Amino acid sequence: MRRFHCTCGQEVMFEDSECSACGQLLGFNPETLEMLAVFADEGEELMFGDDGSLRPCALRDHPVACNWLIPAVDEHTQCRSCRLTRTIPAQTTPINVQRWNILETAKRRLVYSLLWLGLPVVDREEDPDVGLAFDFLEDQRTNPLVKKQVVLTGHNDGVITLHAIEADDVHRVKAREQMNERYRTVLGHMRHEIGHYYWDKLIRNSDWYPRFRRLFGGEEYYRQALDYYYTYGPAPNWGSRHISAYASAHPWEDWAESWAHYLHIMSTLETATGFGVLPQADVYSSDFHVLMQKWEQLTVLMNSLNRSMGMPDAYPFWLTPQVIVKLRFIHQVIAATAEK
Ligand SMILES: [Zn+2]
Ligand SMILES: [Zn+2]
Ligand SMILES: [Zn+2]
Protein backbone atom coordinates (compact mmCIF):
# COMPACT_ATOMS: atom_id res chain seq x y z
CA MET A 1 0.00 0.00 0.00
CA ARG A 2 1.27 3.47 -0.84
CA ARG A 3 1.02 6.45 1.52
CA PHE A 4 -1.68 9.07 1.20
CA HIS A 5 -1.85 12.69 2.27
CA CYS A 6 -4.61 15.25 2.55
CA THR A 7 -4.12 18.57 0.75
CA CYS A 8 -3.38 20.06 4.22
CA GLY A 9 -0.37 17.72 4.50
CA GLN A 10 -1.85 15.35 7.06
CA GLU A 11 -1.10 11.69 6.47
CA VAL A 12 -4.33 9.77 5.93
CA MET A 13 -5.13 6.08 5.73
CA PHE A 14 -6.38 4.13 2.74
CA GLU A 15 -9.72 3.61 4.50
CA ASP A 16 -10.28 7.28 5.48
CA SER A 17 -13.22 9.28 4.11
CA GLU A 18 -12.22 12.40 5.98
CA CYS A 19 -8.98 14.10 7.05
CA SER A 20 -8.46 13.76 10.81
CA ALA A 21 -6.66 17.14 10.92
CA CYS A 22 -8.69 19.53 8.74
CA GLY A 23 -11.94 17.59 8.30
CA GLN A 24 -11.82 17.74 4.51
CA LEU A 25 -13.74 14.96 2.78
CA LEU A 26 -11.57 12.46 0.91
CA GLY A 27 -12.13 9.77 -1.67
CA PHE A 28 -9.95 7.12 -3.31
CA ASN A 29 -9.78 6.92 -7.09
CA PRO A 30 -9.15 3.26 -8.08
CA GLU A 31 -8.27 4.27 -11.65
CA THR A 32 -5.20 6.28 -10.59
CA LEU A 33 -4.72 4.78 -7.09
CA GLU A 34 -4.79 8.30 -5.61
CA MET A 35 -6.54 9.82 -2.63
CA LEU A 36 -8.46 12.91 -3.71
CA ALA A 37 -9.93 15.82 -1.81
CA VAL A 38 -13.52 16.86 -2.27
CA PHE A 39 -14.06 19.34 -5.14
CA ALA A 40 -17.50 20.55 -4.12
CA ASP A 41 -19.85 19.47 -1.39
CA GLU A 42 -22.58 22.05 -1.81
CA GLY A 43 -26.03 20.72 -2.32
CA GLU A 44 -26.86 17.06 -2.47
CA GLU A 45 -24.04 15.60 -4.52
CA LEU A 46 -20.40 15.31 -3.52
CA MET A 47 -17.88 15.78 -6.31
CA PHE A 48 -14.21 14.84 -6.22
CA GLY A 49 -11.06 15.41 -8.26
CA ASP A 50 -9.58 18.57 -9.80
CA ASP A 51 -12.57 19.04 -12.09
CA GLY A 52 -15.25 17.37 -10.02
CA SER A 53 -15.56 14.52 -12.52
CA LEU A 54 -15.77 11.83 -9.85
CA ARG A 55 -18.52 11.01 -7.41
CA PRO A 56 -18.60 8.78 -4.33
CA CYS A 57 -19.59 5.13 -4.25
CA ALA A 58 -23.22 4.63 -3.19
CA LEU A 59 -21.99 2.77 -0.09
CA ARG A 60 -20.14 5.81 1.31
CA ASP A 61 -22.68 7.21 3.80
CA HIS A 62 -23.60 3.70 4.68
CA PRO A 63 -22.46 1.07 7.23
CA VAL A 64 -19.99 -0.23 4.60
CA ALA A 65 -18.32 3.23 4.66
CA CYS A 66 -16.65 2.78 1.28
CA ASN A 67 -14.43 5.75 0.34
CA TRP A 68 -13.92 4.81 -3.31
CA LEU A 69 -14.93 7.01 -6.23
CA ILE A 70 -16.46 6.41 -9.63
CA PRO A 71 -16.60 8.63 -12.71
CA ALA A 72 -19.63 10.94 -12.53
CA VAL A 73 -20.69 9.73 -15.98
CA ASP A 74 -20.60 6.05 -14.97
CA GLU A 75 -24.02 4.40 -14.98
CA HIS A 76 -23.19 2.29 -11.90
CA THR A 77 -23.94 3.53 -8.41
CA GLN A 78 -21.32 1.46 -6.58
CA CYS A 79 -17.54 1.52 -7.06
CA ARG A 80 -15.70 -1.29 -8.84
CA SER A 81 -14.83 -3.01 -5.57
CA CYS A 82 -18.30 -2.88 -3.97
CA ARG A 83 -20.08 -4.07 -7.08
CA LEU A 84 -17.97 -7.24 -7.21
CA THR A 85 -20.11 -8.38 -4.28
CA ARG A 86 -23.04 -10.46 -5.45
CA THR A 87 -24.50 -11.72 -2.16
CA ILE A 88 -24.35 -10.35 1.38
CA PRO A 89 -25.55 -11.84 4.66
CA ALA A 90 -29.04 -10.69 5.73
CA GLN A 91 -28.67 -7.15 7.08
CA THR A 92 -31.30 -7.73 9.76
CA THR A 93 -28.79 -8.18 12.61
CA PRO A 94 -26.14 -5.66 13.74
CA ILE A 95 -23.45 -8.35 13.59
CA ASN A 96 -24.11 -8.96 9.87
CA VAL A 97 -23.95 -5.22 9.17
CA GLN A 98 -20.55 -5.16 10.88
CA ARG A 99 -19.41 -8.30 9.03
CA TRP A 100 -20.27 -6.77 5.66
CA ASN A 101 -18.22 -3.69 6.56
CA ILE A 102 -15.20 -5.83 7.54
CA LEU A 103 -15.43 -7.97 4.40
CA GLU A 104 -15.67 -4.95 2.08
CA THR A 105 -12.80 -3.20 3.86
CA ALA A 106 -10.57 -6.22 3.25
CA LYS A 107 -11.81 -6.55 -0.35
CA ARG A 108 -10.82 -2.96 -1.17
CA ARG A 109 -7.26 -3.76 -0.06
CA LEU A 110 -7.35 -6.87 -2.21
CA VAL A 111 -8.61 -5.00 -5.28
CA TYR A 112 -6.08 -2.21 -4.71
CA SER A 113 -3.19 -4.70 -4.87
CA LEU A 114 -4.57 -6.38 -8.00
CA LEU A 115 -4.88 -3.01 -9.76
CA TRP A 116 -1.44 -1.94 -8.54
CA LEU A 117 0.10 -5.13 -9.92
CA GLY A 118 -1.65 -4.57 -13.26
CA LEU A 119 -3.78 -7.72 -13.04
CA PRO A 120 -7.07 -7.86 -14.94
CA VAL A 121 -10.10 -7.38 -12.65
CA VAL A 122 -13.07 -8.43 -14.77
CA ASP A 123 -16.49 -8.51 -13.15
CA ARG A 124 -19.47 -10.66 -14.07
CA GLU A 125 -21.17 -7.88 -15.94
CA GLU A 126 -18.25 -7.86 -18.42
CA ASP A 127 -17.89 -11.63 -18.38
CA PRO A 128 -21.09 -13.38 -17.18
CA ASP A 129 -19.52 -16.87 -17.32
CA VAL A 130 -16.26 -16.54 -15.42
CA GLY A 131 -16.12 -12.90 -14.30
CA LEU A 132 -15.23 -12.16 -10.71
CA ALA A 133 -17.93 -12.06 -8.02
CA PHE A 134 -18.05 -12.43 -4.25
CA ASP A 135 -20.72 -14.25 -2.26
CA PHE A 136 -20.60 -13.48 1.44
CA LEU A 137 -22.85 -16.18 2.87
CA GLU A 138 -24.15 -17.58 6.11
CA ASP A 139 -25.08 -21.16 6.90
CA GLN A 140 -27.18 -22.74 9.63
CA ARG A 141 -24.33 -22.46 12.12
CA THR A 142 -24.90 -18.68 12.28
CA ASN A 143 -28.42 -18.33 10.90
CA PRO A 144 -31.04 -21.11 11.26
CA LEU A 145 -33.23 -19.33 8.70
CA VAL A 146 -30.92 -19.97 5.72
CA LYS A 147 -31.10 -23.16 3.65
CA LYS A 148 -27.39 -23.94 3.44
CA GLN A 149 -26.15 -26.29 6.13
CA VAL A 150 -22.48 -25.58 5.60
CA VAL A 151 -20.83 -22.83 3.58
CA LEU A 152 -17.25 -23.56 2.62
CA THR A 153 -14.80 -20.87 1.61
CA GLY A 154 -13.87 -21.44 -2.00
CA HIS A 155 -13.66 -20.39 -5.63
CA ASN A 156 -15.69 -21.64 -8.59
CA ASP A 157 -15.51 -20.10 -12.10
CA GLY A 158 -14.87 -16.58 -10.84
CA VAL A 159 -17.22 -16.73 -7.85
CA ILE A 160 -15.47 -16.44 -4.51
CA THR A 161 -17.49 -17.69 -1.56
CA LEU A 162 -16.67 -16.67 1.96
CA HIS A 163 -18.60 -17.47 5.11
CA ALA A 164 -19.48 -14.11 6.68
CA ILE A 165 -18.40 -15.49 10.07
CA GLU A 166 -14.78 -15.17 8.89
CA ALA A 167 -15.19 -11.48 9.72
CA ASP A 168 -15.46 -12.39 13.44
CA ASP A 169 -12.17 -12.31 15.34
CA VAL A 170 -13.18 -14.97 17.87
CA HIS A 171 -14.21 -17.42 15.16
CA ARG A 172 -11.03 -16.86 13.18
CA VAL A 173 -8.69 -17.34 16.13
CA LYS A 174 -10.52 -20.51 17.15
CA ALA A 175 -10.44 -21.89 13.61
CA ARG A 176 -6.77 -20.98 13.27
CA GLU A 177 -5.91 -22.92 16.44
CA GLN A 178 -8.07 -25.90 15.52
CA MET A 179 -6.56 -26.13 12.05
CA ASN A 180 -3.07 -25.47 13.36
CA GLU A 181 -2.57 -22.49 11.03
CA ARG A 182 0.02 -19.77 11.54
CA TYR A 183 -1.99 -17.03 9.93
CA ARG A 184 -5.68 -16.48 9.23
CA THR A 185 -7.19 -13.16 8.16
CA VAL A 186 -10.07 -12.03 5.92
CA LEU A 187 -7.59 -10.47 3.52
CA GLY A 188 -5.58 -13.71 3.54
CA HIS A 189 -8.69 -15.73 2.58
CA MET A 190 -9.42 -13.36 -0.27
CA ARG A 191 -5.85 -13.42 -1.53
CA HIS A 192 -5.91 -17.22 -1.48
CA GLU A 193 -9.23 -17.58 -3.32
CA ILE A 194 -8.30 -15.00 -5.93
CA GLY A 195 -5.22 -17.17 -6.53
CA HIS A 196 -7.54 -19.93 -7.77
CA TYR A 197 -9.30 -17.38 -9.97
CA TYR A 198 -6.02 -16.30 -11.58
CA TRP A 199 -4.88 -19.90 -11.97
CA ASP A 200 -7.91 -20.46 -14.21
CA LYS A 201 -7.30 -17.19 -16.01
CA LEU A 202 -3.52 -17.16 -16.41
CA ILE A 203 -2.23 -20.75 -16.10
CA ARG A 204 -4.88 -23.16 -17.37
CA ASN A 205 -4.61 -23.42 -21.17
CA SER A 206 -1.57 -21.15 -21.23
CA ASP A 207 2.12 -21.50 -22.08
CA TRP A 208 2.84 -21.32 -18.34
CA TYR A 209 1.03 -24.58 -17.70
CA PRO A 210 3.94 -27.05 -18.23
CA ARG A 211 6.10 -25.03 -15.86
CA PHE A 212 3.31 -24.96 -13.32
CA ARG A 213 3.18 -28.75 -13.39
CA ARG A 214 6.93 -29.08 -13.02
CA LEU A 215 7.03 -26.75 -10.01
CA PHE A 216 3.78 -27.56 -8.23
CA GLY A 217 2.89 -31.05 -9.52
CA GLY A 218 0.02 -32.64 -11.45
CA GLU A 219 -3.45 -31.52 -10.38
CA GLU A 220 -5.38 -34.79 -10.73
CA TYR A 221 -7.45 -36.19 -7.82
CA TYR A 222 -8.28 -32.82 -6.27
CA ARG A 223 -11.25 -33.94 -4.15
CA GLN A 224 -9.45 -37.08 -2.96
CA ALA A 225 -6.38 -35.05 -2.03
CA LEU A 226 -8.43 -32.62 0.07
CA ASP A 227 -10.29 -35.50 1.78
CA TYR A 228 -6.93 -37.08 2.54
CA TYR A 229 -5.59 -33.81 3.95
CA TYR A 230 -8.57 -33.31 6.25
CA THR A 231 -8.38 -36.94 7.43
CA TYR A 232 -4.64 -37.45 7.83
CA GLY A 233 -3.22 -33.93 8.02
CA PRO A 234 -0.38 -32.35 6.03
CA ALA A 235 2.41 -34.18 4.27
CA PRO A 236 5.42 -34.93 6.51
CA ASN A 237 8.20 -32.32 6.12
CA TRP A 238 5.75 -30.02 4.31
CA GLY A 239 7.78 -27.04 5.58
CA SER A 240 10.69 -27.69 3.22
CA ARG A 241 8.56 -27.54 0.08
CA HIS A 242 5.45 -25.52 0.99
CA ILE A 243 4.66 -22.11 2.42
CA SER A 244 1.97 -23.58 4.68
CA ALA A 245 0.72 -26.97 5.84
CA TYR A 246 -2.44 -26.55 3.75
CA ALA A 247 -0.35 -25.90 0.65
CA SER A 248 0.80 -29.53 0.85
CA ALA A 249 -2.80 -30.72 0.31
CA HIS A 250 -2.75 -30.39 -3.50
CA PRO A 251 -0.86 -28.43 -6.23
CA TRP A 252 -3.84 -26.07 -6.69
CA GLU A 253 -3.84 -25.24 -2.99
CA ASP A 254 -0.07 -24.88 -3.09
CA TRP A 255 -0.49 -22.37 -5.94
CA ALA A 256 -3.24 -20.42 -4.10
CA GLU A 257 -1.25 -20.34 -0.86
CA SER A 258 1.89 -19.22 -2.70
CA TRP A 259 -0.09 -16.63 -4.67
CA ALA A 260 -1.60 -15.20 -1.45
CA HIS A 261 1.86 -15.11 0.05
CA TYR A 262 3.25 -13.26 -2.95
CA LEU A 263 0.51 -10.62 -2.53
CA HIS A 264 1.34 -10.34 1.21
CA ILE A 265 4.99 -9.77 0.37
CA MET A 266 4.46 -7.23 -2.41
CA SER A 267 1.86 -5.25 -0.51
CA THR A 268 3.99 -5.08 2.63
CA LEU A 269 7.11 -4.18 0.64
CA GLU A 270 5.22 -1.34 -1.01
CA THR A 271 4.15 -0.01 2.40
CA ALA A 272 7.67 -0.29 3.86
CA THR A 273 9.17 1.49 0.86
CA GLY A 274 6.66 4.33 1.23
CA PHE A 275 7.80 4.85 4.82
CA GLY A 276 11.49 4.81 3.88
CA VAL A 277 12.14 1.56 5.75
CA LEU A 278 13.51 0.22 2.49
CA PRO A 279 15.35 2.28 -0.12
CA GLN A 280 13.05 4.16 -2.47
CA ALA A 281 12.84 2.04 -5.58
CA ASP A 282 10.12 0.67 -7.70
CA VAL A 283 9.34 -2.43 -5.67
CA TYR A 284 7.33 -3.90 -8.45
CA SER A 285 9.93 -3.74 -11.23
CA SER A 286 12.83 -4.82 -9.03
CA ASP A 287 14.73 -7.99 -9.65
CA PHE A 288 13.11 -10.87 -7.78
CA HIS A 289 16.32 -11.80 -6.00
CA VAL A 290 16.60 -8.24 -4.65
CA LEU A 291 12.96 -8.30 -3.57
CA MET A 292 13.55 -11.46 -1.56
CA GLN A 293 16.62 -9.95 0.13
CA LYS A 294 14.65 -6.84 1.09
CA TRP A 295 11.81 -8.99 2.29
CA GLU A 296 14.05 -11.03 4.57
CA GLN A 297 15.42 -7.86 6.21
CA LEU A 298 11.96 -6.44 6.58
CA THR A 299 10.46 -9.54 8.20
CA VAL A 300 13.16 -9.48 10.91
CA LEU A 301 12.23 -5.85 11.57
CA MET A 302 8.49 -6.59 11.61
CA ASN A 303 8.86 -9.50 14.03
CA SER A 304 11.20 -7.54 16.29
CA LEU A 305 8.73 -4.65 16.46
CA ASN A 306 5.90 -7.02 17.30
CA ARG A 307 7.91 -8.79 20.00
CA SER A 308 8.72 -5.40 21.55
CA MET A 309 4.97 -4.86 21.82
CA GLY A 310 4.48 -8.29 23.39
CA MET A 311 2.68 -9.47 20.26
CA PRO A 312 3.17 -12.71 18.31
CA ASP A 313 5.37 -12.53 15.22
CA ALA A 314 3.80 -10.57 12.36
CA TYR A 315 5.50 -12.94 9.93
CA PRO A 316 5.47 -16.52 11.25
CA PHE A 317 6.83 -18.03 8.03
CA TRP A 318 10.08 -19.33 6.72
CA LEU A 319 10.88 -19.20 3.01
CA THR A 320 12.86 -22.23 1.79
CA PRO A 321 14.56 -22.33 -1.64
CA GLN A 322 11.78 -24.57 -2.97
CA VAL A 323 9.14 -22.08 -1.86
CA ILE A 324 11.08 -19.13 -3.29
CA VAL A 325 11.21 -20.84 -6.72
CA LYS A 326 7.39 -20.99 -6.70
CA LEU A 327 7.09 -17.34 -5.65
CA ARG A 328 9.46 -16.37 -8.47
CA PHE A 329 7.28 -18.20 -10.95
CA ILE A 330 4.24 -16.22 -9.71
CA HIS A 331 6.28 -13.01 -9.97
CA GLN A 332 7.10 -13.81 -13.60
CA VAL A 333 3.50 -14.69 -14.47
CA ILE A 334 2.20 -11.43 -12.94
CA ALA A 335 4.91 -9.28 -14.52
CA ALA A 336 4.21 -10.78 -17.96
CA THR A 337 0.44 -10.29 -17.49
CA ALA A 338 0.87 -6.68 -16.40
CA GLU A 339 2.99 -5.91 -19.50
CA LYS A 340 0.23 -6.97 -21.88
ZN1 LIG B 1 -6.48 17.70 5.88
ZN1 LIG C 1 -17.57 1.17 -2.92
ZN1 LIG D 1 -7.96 -23.02 -2.00
Automatic annotation (TrEMBL):
Residues in Zinc-ribbon domain copies: 4-91
Q: How is this protein named in the record?
A: Zinc-binding metallopeptidase
Quote the Gene3D superfamilies the UniProt record gives: 3.40.390.70
**Pfam families given for it?**
Peptidase_Mx, Zn_ribbon_DZR_6
Question: Which InterPro entries has this protein been placed in?
Answer: UCP012641, Zinc-ribbon_6_bact
Which branch of life, at top level?
Bacteria
